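Hi team,

Below is the intake form for AsmA family protein from Sphingobium xenophagum. Please confirm the fields before the structure is written into the shared record.

FORM ID: S-0412
PROTEIN: AsmA family protein
ORGANISM: Sphingobium xenophagum
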Amino acid sequence: MGMTAGSRWAVRIGVGLLVLIGLLILLLAAFPWGMFKGRIEDRLSDRIGKRVTIGSMVREDSLSFHPVVRLTDIKVPQPDWAPGNADLARVGEARVGFSALALLTGGPVLERLDLAHARLSFYRAADGRESWSGERSHASDDKGQRPALRSLTVSDSRIAYRDDKRGRSVDAALMVDARGLRLSGTGDVRGHPVRVTASGAPIVGRKTGARWPFKAEIAGEAVGMTIDGTMDGPLDIGHLRGRVTGHAIDLRVLDAIIEAGLPGTQPVRLAAQVVRDRPDWTIENLKGTIGRSDIAGHATIRKRDGRTRIDGAIASARFDFDDLSSNEGKRKAAAKRAKLGERLIPDTAIDLSRMARTDGRLEVRADRLLWPGSSPFRSLRGTLRLERSRLVVEPLRLGLTRGILTGRLAVDQRQGGPRLDLALNLRSARLLDFFPEARIDGGLTGRVALNGPGRTIRQAVGRSSGTIALVGRDGSIPARTAALMGQDVGKGLTVDKDKMAVLRCVVARFDVSNGVARANPVLIDTSRAQTRIAGTIRLTDEVMALEASGQPKQGSLLRLNGTVPIGGTIKQPDIRVPTEARSTKGILKMIGKAIAGDKVPRARDADCEGLAKTAMR
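The structure came back. Fields below:
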């Protein structure tokens, strides 16, 4: 049966289409890629804002879907804002092999690259501009394509890099041939000299899908870092895994290499297993030391929509908070203490502005806290959550010699400057652990609820409002101290120094408004006397303006009348003894009153239970 006219036309159209497709494929295989020289120059020139030139560009083969193009005398100038006279790139000769079909399908394009007599000079300015990237890209969290590079050779070439933002530089010779990749040169990290080396396995003849082993090292006395691992493919820095080690005189110096925004510290040594799957990092088996502290942990770092999220855990068997300060930081802190005096409230920074685009969750644990002197704080546990400029540490648990301090610390910077919110509870503690030299003991509980703005804890507490309450119960106190607190000078000087009195309670509540803490009340009740304290403490500088008045519960030998002013600071109190206790006339007057049998009202036992409930409400 013969074909109908319609069928014959369909066959002719089909054959025509096949012929046309064949001709297009043949044209693609034989395309004269050299004719794009001008367009490539124009596109590169538009990107960096200065004229890029290529001496010549010709296709070496005649018919292939994997053409090889030879370019000579390539010159890429630096942007106008970059310093120096060196071009961004000067390449004597480049042979580029690529997949013509990938240009149509959108797959990996570059397959082969041979460079000779190349000089590359990269520069990053202090403001973050990069000479090699034109307008800065905000698509850093794009997974991108894995390179399909099958062959790379480089001869007689050098790479120079200077980074004024991080304070680092390198100038190195690069060679890639049948033996593999080799890089060697010198540089500096924040002014500290280093030697930079790298090596990689041969690229030519590599099996498809095989991982590419490499090593890199930055070696110096002050700072150094190594990585020994593999990439998914040659030079595929977006997909790698390996073991990393690092050391530095200061974590901030090491951070010039890793760019994680880390602070200055005491000398550091770290090691970890890392995996990068662009744009994410996974850090496992992190171990190391900072000063005399040890750390271990893990973390994942993810970048999405211009934000960075860090989730992980950090643990320490021994941890010293002083190790989180560099020597320079310690010198500044010492100078500040010399100028302002000792302070109880820490000057720890809580400004989150540098972490405006960082979120995450971090579990923190320190089994043993190390201090330069005695301290009741022994261990630390906490969960840190940071979400869009709001940091919450909850639950927060500080283990004491006896007892625990638990609660919540929050820093909210969503509405401008940071605002601190503290809610802490103390329970099952002992007075003796906080005041060992005073030999005063008893069960201790307390609570702190403060809220205020400031860029450090000290500044925020100095502007805060809220309450501070402490209650000590059922303990002991040196009899001499108890007598003096009842303003009985005679017994305070004559009672056996080893004799103890009963401490019924210490009740201290301060109502805080705009950084001024007002006693409401502060009372010390013992078996020998009762003391009430009134006045204020200015939390900005911890200056006290208090007055103590004591009443004995027993007969007095030499009774001091009136009140006793208490000035100075919390860490360095100044108890101002009244004039009558310092002069012969005053002492004789007290003796006269004692001989005459001057009747002093006796204090009654305070309602410790009721006062404690009121203070802790």
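SUMMARY LINE: The two ends are 104 Å apart (CA to CA).

Thanks, M.
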